[in-house]
Design brief:
With 104 residues, this protein is of the alpha+beta class. Helix content is 24%, strand content 34%. It has a single domain, classed as Alpha-Beta Plaits (2-Layer Sandwich).
Length: 104
Amino acid sequence: MKKNSKISLYKAYDIIKKPVTTEKSTNLQQFNQYSFIVSKNSNSLEIKNAIEMIFKVKVNKVNTSILRGKGKTFKGQYGFRKDTKRAIVTLAEGNTIDSSLEIK
């Protein structure tokens, strides 16, 4: 993939699933960091381009982690929840994402 490759707005919304609104992620916002659940097969460069396109901000850094699904019992059957990928996005100074904005 090229360094300055452009992605479509449709692909950007496909990469960024939804924002994470936990107490921990809310505390990160004071350091200009925002958390999102993203597509499992996306990489940091694609996530950066998608955030910049959707929210019109400058992204400095993207950290990703894959959270393994927990084991659960449902009606006597043991199974696992889905694995999820989260991205913590650090924005450049002076940029913010309005918390009332929602991914469609």
